[in-house]
């Protein structure tokens, strides 16, 4: 007996392909290799999601190219085309990109909208409202896939239904109307429950007044046409700019302070707003959701927000950084209930903290509180030096201005002098005698001096006179003063006379023209000097001002540096504090739960998790939206000082954008790897099927039957082994639930029942003891135990279930975050071991015979694809587990609420004196009577939900096992035996023709992935030339494109949630396009297009009900043509020619005729994709000419591209099947009969 050599194994422990030295049995057997795709499936280089998504796009396009021959043959008997088409379509449907929902939460005024707008790189997009109630509407922002230029920005405003508004309106009326049937006086207080109710009703019904409100009832108000036409509808908006869409949205969500036109306001009726924009941060599948607070007065909006929270992949918590400086930041931002829900969901790692408004800072306070003196002392010293320099230069500037003023005065005097001398020159030219004006001035000065001397003499004598006359009365003093005036006048007259006498004796010398001109020239020279001095002073002033500006700029930069140091210092402090506080908050919650679980064995020194890692992995971003917008050139109207931020990166908004994009990386990459593994698996199966023409095995019929029986038994054994693994996995899964979940239920049910009555009693206790006012108590009952009023949010239902919910959280997290993922990982490990064992045993006998190495090699490739797919399976199933467990852990409180509805309703109906006491008695009595039953109901509902999860997991595991078994049966029988159906001799000829048609297409598939593996850049999208025939373009791209393959690219997430229909009657046509529908926009990806359209065969062509139904194929740009099988290469596509139609194919026609139908229908596809070089060598048998017939031939109406040395008849008369002489003679005879029939018709 031949010794069996051990199979070589690759690095993953899988069977390696056989050595190349062993020659296969059939050298002429077509080869289909998937080496490039396999490298992508293994992904040893951990390629990015962008690279893998490129490979997925190529894969989808390649699958589309494989559908051509299968589409043509799907209705022909004895072919497997329909089965393969279904598998291809199913795989294409799984190429849908992943969607990552990121919830954004925060208190009012935290800056959520500003942060979101900055992340979207828009100045303002999210509409806001000053009313507290409007924040209850979730706003979803996702990528806009529309290619319509008029729809660059889109939005959908979805309104609550009639039933939802009626329920809320009834609650609002209960809050608004007091016991006397009138509007409560508290309605004027906007922060009270009554004030909020009045504001909402008044907004929707603006014509109502307080006096008339009690006369109306909710049913009547709901049925008003203006409101009824809005409820339950969705309004669609579109704009070309963000500002345009913002203004449209603002008209819906904004409240009008002065509603003078009495028009309806929509904000109380909005359920959710969906915005679609082309922000790059959203292009990877991120969906940002601006969520309101957890407590909402409207149940519909609260449910929408809760569903978003449940589906969130990431959770952004926004708070002003001024709160982050407080040591209690992370603890106060996340309440215990919220943190416990994160623990249940296993969502601690999904949390991201965003500290907003980092530009709001006091430098002095920051330096002192953060101990930044050492870091800023040098800068502050330089700032003081700059201030001293500025003062010095400003002083110098003042001195220069004084000198300039003196020069200006001198220049003015010179101008006056020049005017005088110019006037003298003019008089001299007129013949007058002129004298030096300076002499006249001297004379006048002497006269003044003489007069002043007399005046001084008088003033010197006055004191004496005054002293001598001090004892006189006022009248004598007056007379004395009068005498003094007369004396001065006499002295002046005498002096003038003396001067006149002295001058009269002197002769004045007239000025000559030369003297005047010399004087004028001298004055001009002096003036030039003054002007030069002024210019010099101005230059000095300019230089001084420039120096001052430069120093002030340097000072400003230094101040900006100081502010930047303070901002960065506070950011780092806040980041560290938040990380630490968040981890400590989780630790406190864990310890609290541990104490409740087992107080005796609780050890505070033992950490229940790595809290340092929790702190380190928490993303914290300290952002300034306003600084980012200002540095980006926006906020033009705002006088915002962006100092302290020297670049966009220092605002940390770009880092937050990158973080948002990275949130999708893992999910996108995992989804791509799953698709590529499935693609590799499918292409391997297709390759084994296509290359098997029924002649692969060299075994005799008896040996073949024996091998087939042996292989089928091993496949059946594999089926049983897979079933056993599924059963074992489900047993482990249920055991984990029983130990960690159901036992906790049984343990804490009695404890919860004991705590229920004290809890209910506490609701009506004194306010100092945590009780509620009667109005708040009743408002809470009116809303089924959930209310957020002035005293804060309260949830009676959650408080009742807390004794079970709190201790369960740790076990729940351990079960769903560690135990169940481990169970699923073990399933994958066991399944991979079964696959390897099966492959080794199934191929052992073939390897012993030393033949069919090609088939074994393809099976080895398929084994790797199976292994990769199984490895990805735990992540897929774990996603299902997480979704189901999130539904389950949220069912505790709603079940308690249902059990408490009767008590809530009874309390609401209480009226009159003593109502509060009766309400409390009713509540406590109901809880006391039904406490055990309602807790049992709550745990039973959760257990039922988990049982449903188990059934879902079992179904998926069983489906995967069944699919794997079917693939193994098909592939191994095909590759090792050569025939799929026992007892059948050979393959039907249409099937063989179809397989031969698929081989060149499959050979073309793998090379298209080579550029991705090599890291070559993606080619830009080709611009289609109008004159280029589409057939030539498809041929140049190397892939066949099936009919209608050029479908427009649609929003891949459009069908996830949007099922409402717009009510055209309410759409504002001024801003809304009522005809807008979610039609798929054009595709951006480069895809080949096809002009072939499948059309039904005319009924007149059908000879009888037994005739084969074969779709006719037409060309959009050419008349129907008769395909001619070329035996010589043709350089170009043959021109279309019209031919006479032929009769339809009849059942029972010879095999070559049926095969020709398959091949002819898609020879064009093969020519466009395979090319002459991929066909190989084959003997061509000429096709007899066909005569014209009465009707059109649905198969022949195809424009074809000739091939070199190859025709479809090669599939039947090639050297591959030398034993088909009898069949060849039969087919030849049949063709002869057809020719005779054609001659008769002629």
The major pleated sheet works out as: 9 strands, mixed
In DSSP terms (H or I, runs of 4 or more residues), the helix count works out at 35
| Percent in helix | 55-70%
Q: What is the average per-residue confidence, as pLDDT, rounded to a whole number?
A: 75
Overall geometric form: extended
**Strand order within the widest sheet?**
4-3-5-2-6-1-7-8-9
Radius of gyration: 48 Å
- Beta-strand segment tally: 13
Strand content: 5-15%
Q: State the low-pLDDT regions, or none.
A: 1-27, 130-134, 450-505, 1023-1049, 1055-1242
Notes on the structure:
This protein is mainly α and 1242 residues long. The protein is built from 35 helices and 13 strands. A 9-stranded mixed beta sheet has the order 4-3-5-2-6-1-7-8-9, sandwiched between helices. A two-stranded antiparallel sheet has the order 10-11. The protein has a two-stranded antiparallel sheet with strand order 12-13. β10 (786-789) and β11 (792-795) form a beta hairpin. α2 (49-73) runs antiparallel to α3 (81-93) and α22 packs antiparallel against α26 (853-889). The longest helix has 85 residues, at 513-597.
